[in-house]
């Protein structure tokens, strides 16, 4: 009994290890001996982080994990429990303000997520129950329910397609919300359920689906469906990704479909894809934490010094217990060690405002609000896709200004991914042009001596291969069955290459008319319709780098057509067929074209029966299906005959070359990581100016290594040779290395995937255990690196390898396809291109832009300004708090270290919240110390802030010494005036502001006005809840004196004088440099052109531009 109850609670545990069983309509097979309902999650989507009950504790826990918040909590508790010189309100109120503002922000964001979840969960859907359409909310769907979806509706969960209104059981789906692909994709129902397209007929279905447990890969699905007839005999059919309709996708061009729910709620592929994204931290955040530790050390030092000096002062009996302040008996009996500890805590509380509690919330607001400037930038708007830039995370804005390495994909990133068929090669003959007759267009590249067949038969065989070997779908603008001559054919495919090849075949007279009921139709140049039965499709994958189809002709012959990369096709064809085509492929690759080789073979009937049986068995497997299919594909695609090759052009994106030149000028190293051929990738790199004509290329490829019998020895020799060549060219300093690029010979490195594997996985003998370190030394000296034939995992490995270099350089990855996601997630900053290979890269990136050219402004302008702004914000916060609290420290030397506060509690509380917070926030959002056009036109300015230059030890010490100087000036200058320094700090911020807006004027002068108003208000009223009111009428009395006004003006000028002097010297030096540059230009133009009048005009024009 107990075991039965336990099994009912953990229902289907045996199946849940790797698979799950779903009964269609939740109707188990009547022949099943025992049926125990399995437990699956409901269809509710939960993207929110908090609930009403856990918001407060969970949010507080997360906020107090920050060192500054936790520190102020400890200070507040000390003030509550220990007799301290300041009220607990002075630290409690600012802490409460910061915690409250952050909680409101995070709560609002989570409320938006709750609202979005409710919109999805409460949406109306229709379930088929007892042959009736039952209206329900989406969250009520259970696994096994049969769901009806109509045209233009989104699928409420992951469904297995059972039937559609189409007679062949197909439906069209767009997955724009999942991967951004707007093209219609075709999905299929198994042939046994195609006819069940009414609620009454679907109710009669008795079937069970066995499939894998939920996993996030959008493009993989393994399952099988067992359909039971009236005699309880089961017919099993395989299920794959083509049968699965994903939640979030939309039904298009199909009136309605029926599907059974297999994954619901948080187990859908869409939900699994939005979970587990790691949090990235910027270099600025690390600097903030380091500065906090330094200032905490300063705080501890101040407290320790004052505690020590207090007891030195009290070593004299008169100072220890003066006549006007006698000790109580309890104080005399207290242990001296305990009293010293209490005094130390009291000094900690007195000086605790040196730690800026409000800095974190200000930084968060600056990042959040600042990210809108990227989204609002009109230069990032692309009319073709009607979209602009998108910020997926605002935590890395300043990191855009600190990039050292840029890793970019080639296809779709540097190029348009808009393919155009250029030419083809058939048995060594080159075809280029447009005609309906293939005769007479062949330009011979070599002798024709293959097979005893006529040339025309081989040409037609090649063109039929292009029309049949693909996964292209066709859409016509009329609703008739098939296509007519007048119908406009629209080809749809997830691969632009395939559409280009099909259109290329059309140029030579062979037109693909579409697939219907498993039959592919092709119209030949004689206007005859040829029909082929599609038996099997061996889909493309990045490991095989090829795809094949098996078709049966009307005559009953079974043919295999295969197309793929030359490296994947050449080893599988006859050796004597390779040479003529290989020369054509290499020449096209040198021209920058994308090449594919085409092969075929005839399959005997007996062999086909064996192949068909093996494929069906592999498709039915639930465990290791992909590995089994891979092995069968490998066996089938052997001993083929090479027909020819194709050349497709992928045009370079607009301004791609200019963007790479600008990045190089800014001191960034650009690496191209691509899966393409070396020749094609090299040609593209020259076209986009990654490699210059003067660049000396160093190759570490299979071709250069295979010259030796032992590859590792040859690799070691090349690595040593390249390192020797590069070491004497460049200085050791990384900072001077960037400047040296323009003064020395430029080097570029080319490496392929197999050589990289050899470097990363080399044996651990004495000759090869340092491959990786030597390789990295070479890479650091090269201005550009091309990595070709790269697998997605290798792209991520390269990024990780560079990230772990000495000095931890900042890396940025940019790509447009699913194969780029791994390197985008691995790098410090990931940028996705909203391209034609889907939106997987854009969805997983930190920022997404429509084109590669937008990277220039994103880094050189936005990144530069974001970094300068937030660096100034961070330094300013520490500066103003040290300037504010230093007089408090100095005051202890004049009050016998009695812990007497210098400032009134109200000013301590309001200083960070009201007096000084808004001006720096406005500055950090709006400041433009250099015009945006200047930043983009002069990339060298980017180098001035690289390496986290503004948050290094030098600038930090400068700001600290400046704060100490100004704090000392105000203390000693206002020894008897009890004046705060918020006037001077806002004045300094006004001095630093280069780009004035009405917002800057409002917050800077408004904060000063508020300070004056608050001082009058606070000191002008007798507050009944205060035990003592030390500031009553003090401020008004002070301002009534002319000497006070003169002292304020004089002290502000003295404190800011070093800063003013420095600015003046910088301006004089800058103008002198511009004048020298102008004179140099004038002398150059004089020597080049002797005409006086043009010289005067040109010099005047240059002078006016400079001024």
Automatic annotation (TrEMBL):
TM regions (residue ranges): 290-313, 344-363, 956-978, 998-1023, 1043-1065
Membrane topology reported for the UniProt record: Multi-pass membrane protein
Sequence positions that bind ATP: 409-411, 498, 540, 563, 594, 674-676, 789, 795, 819-820
GO cellular component: a single term: early endosome membrane
Principal place of residence: membrane
Residue ranges of domain P-type ATPase N-terminal in the record: 37-91
Protein name: Phospholipid-transporting ATPase
């Amino acid at each position: 009994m107990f075991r039965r109850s336990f099994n009912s609670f953990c229902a289907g545990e045996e199946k849940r290890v790797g698979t799950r069983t779903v009964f269609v309509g939740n109707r188990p097979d009547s022949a099943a001996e025992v049926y125990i309902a399995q437990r699956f999650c409901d269809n509710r989507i939960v993207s929110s982080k908090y609930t009403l009950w856990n918001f407060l504790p969970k949010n507080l826990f997360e906020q107090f994990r920050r060192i500054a918040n936790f520190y102020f909590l400890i200070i507040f508790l000390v003030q509550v429990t220990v007799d301290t010189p300041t009220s607990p309100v002075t630290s409690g109120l600012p802490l409460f303000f910061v915690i409250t503002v952050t909680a409101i922000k995070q709560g609002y964001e989570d409320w938006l997520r709750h609202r979005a979840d409710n919109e999805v969960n409460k949406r109306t859907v229709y379930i088929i129950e007892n042959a009736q359409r039952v209206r329900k909310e989406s969250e009520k769907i259970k696994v096994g329910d049969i769901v009806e979806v109509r045209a233009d509706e989104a699928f409420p969960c992951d469904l297995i397609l059972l039937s559609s209104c189409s007679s062949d059981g197909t439906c069209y789906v767009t997955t724009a919300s999942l991967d951004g692909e707007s093209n219609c994709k075709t999905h299929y129902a198994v042939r046994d359920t195609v006819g069940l397209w009414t609620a009454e007929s679907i109710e009669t279905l008795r079937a069970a689906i066995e499939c894998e447990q939920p996993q996030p890969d959008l493009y993989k699905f393994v399952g099988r469906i067992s359909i039971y007839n009236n005699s309880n005999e089961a017919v099993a059919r395989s299920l794959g990704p083509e049968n699965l309709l994903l939640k979030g996708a939309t039904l298009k061009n199909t009136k309605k479909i029926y599907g059974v729910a297999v994954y619901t709620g948080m187990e859908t592929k869409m939900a699994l894809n939005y979970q587990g994204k790691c949090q990235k931290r910027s270099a600025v955040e690390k600097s903030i934490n380091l500065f906090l530790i330094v200032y905490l050390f300063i705080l501890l030092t101040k407290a320790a010094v004052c505690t020590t000096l207090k007891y030195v002062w009290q070593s004299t009996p008169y100072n220890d217990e003066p006549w006007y302040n006698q000790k109580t008996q309890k104080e005399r009996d207290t242990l001296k060690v305990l009293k010293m500890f209490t005094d130390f805590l009291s000094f900690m509380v007195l000086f605790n405002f040196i730690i800026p509690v409000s800095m974190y919330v200000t930084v968060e607001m600056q990042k959040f609000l600042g990210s809108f400037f990227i989204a609002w930038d009109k230069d990032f708007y692309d009319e073709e896709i009607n979209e602009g830039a998108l910020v997926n995370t605002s935590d890395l804005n300043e990191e855009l200004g600190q990039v050292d390495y840029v890793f970019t994909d080639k296809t779709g990133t540097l190029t348009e991914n808009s393919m155009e068929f250029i030419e083809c090669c058939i048995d060594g003959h080159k075809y280029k042009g447009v005609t309906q007759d293939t005769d007479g267009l062949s330009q011979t590249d070599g002798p024709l001596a293959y097979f005893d067949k006529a040339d025309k038969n081989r040409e037609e065989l090649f063109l039929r291969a292009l029309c049949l070997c693909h996964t292209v779908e066709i859409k016509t603008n009329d609703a008739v069955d098939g296509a007519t001559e007048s119908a406009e054919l629209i080809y749809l495919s997830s691969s632009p290459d395939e559409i280009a090849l099909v259109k290329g075949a059309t140029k030579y007279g062979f037109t693909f008319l579409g697939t219907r009921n498993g039959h592919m139709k092709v119209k030949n140049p004689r206007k005859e319709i040829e029909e082929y039965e599609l038996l099997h499709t061996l889909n493309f994958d990045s490991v095989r780098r090829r795809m094949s189809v098996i078709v049966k002709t009307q005559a009953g012959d079974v043919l295999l057509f295969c197309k793929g990369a030359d490296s994947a096709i050449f080893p599988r064809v006859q050796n004597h067929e390779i040479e003529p085509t290989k020369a054509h492929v290499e020449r096209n690759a040198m021209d920058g074209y994308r090449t594919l080789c085409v092969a075929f073979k005839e399959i005997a009937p007996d062999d086909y029966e064996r192949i068909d049986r093996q494929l069906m068995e592999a498709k039915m497997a639930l465990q290791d299906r992909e590995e089994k299919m891979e092995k069968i594909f490998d066996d089938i695609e052997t001993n083929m005959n090479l027909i020819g090759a194709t050349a497709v052009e992928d045009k370079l994106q607009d301004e791609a070359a200019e963007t790479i030149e600008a990045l190089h000028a800014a001191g960034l190293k650009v690496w191209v990581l691509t899966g393409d051929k070396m020749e094609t990738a090299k040609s593209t790199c020259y076209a986009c100016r990654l490699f210059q004509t003067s660049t000396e290329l160093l190759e570490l490829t299979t071709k250069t290594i295979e010259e030796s019998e032992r590859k590792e020895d040859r690799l070691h020799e090349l690595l040593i040779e390249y390192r020797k060549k590069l070491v004497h060219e460049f200085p050791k300093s990384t900072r001077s290395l960037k400047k040296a690029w323009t003064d020395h010979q430029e080097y570029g490195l080319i490496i392929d995937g197999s050589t990289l594997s050899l470097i990363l996985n080399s044996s651990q003998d004495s000759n090869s255990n340092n491959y990786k370190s030597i390789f990295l030394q070479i890479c650091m000296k090269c201005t550009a690196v091309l990595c070709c034939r790269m697998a997605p995992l290798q792209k991520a490995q390269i990024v990780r390898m560079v990230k772990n270099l000495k000095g931890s350089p900042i890396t940025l990855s940019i790509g447009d396809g699913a194969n780029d996601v791994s390197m985008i997630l691995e790098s410090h900053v990931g940028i996705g291109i909203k391209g034609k290979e889907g939106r997987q890269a854009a969805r997983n990136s930190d920022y997404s832009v429509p084109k590669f050219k937008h990277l220039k402004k994103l880094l050189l302008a936005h990144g530069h300004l974001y970094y300068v702004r937030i660096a100034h914000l961070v330094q300013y916060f520490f500066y103003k708090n040290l300037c504010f609290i230093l007089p408090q420290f100095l005051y202890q030397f004049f009050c016998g270290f009695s812990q007497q506060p210098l400032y009134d509690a109200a000013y301590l509380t309001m200083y960070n919240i009201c007096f000084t917070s808004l001006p720096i926030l406005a500055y950090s959002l709006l400041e433009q110390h250099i015009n945006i056009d200047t930043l983009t036109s002069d990339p060298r300015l980017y180098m001035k802030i690289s390496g986290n230059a503004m948050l290094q030890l030098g600038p930090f010490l400068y700001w600290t010494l400046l704060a100490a100087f100004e704090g000392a000036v105000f203390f000693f200058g206002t020894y008897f005036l009890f004046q705060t320094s918020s006037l001077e700090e806002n004045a300094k911020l006004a001095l630093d502001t280069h780009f004035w807006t009405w917002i800057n004027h409002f917050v800077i002068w408004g904060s000063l006005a508020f300070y004056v108003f608050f001082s009058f208000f606070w000191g002008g009223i007798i507050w009944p809840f205060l035990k003592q009111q030390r500031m009553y009428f003090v401020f008004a009395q002070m301002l009534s004196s002319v000497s006070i006004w003169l002292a304020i003006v004089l002290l502000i000028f003295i404190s800011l004088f070093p800063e003013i002097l420095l600015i003046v010297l910088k301006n004089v030096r800058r103008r002198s440099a511009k004048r020298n540059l102008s004179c140099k230009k004038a002398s150059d133009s004089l020597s080049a052109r002797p005409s006086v009048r043009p010289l005067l005009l040109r010099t005047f024009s240059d002078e006016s531009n400079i001024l």
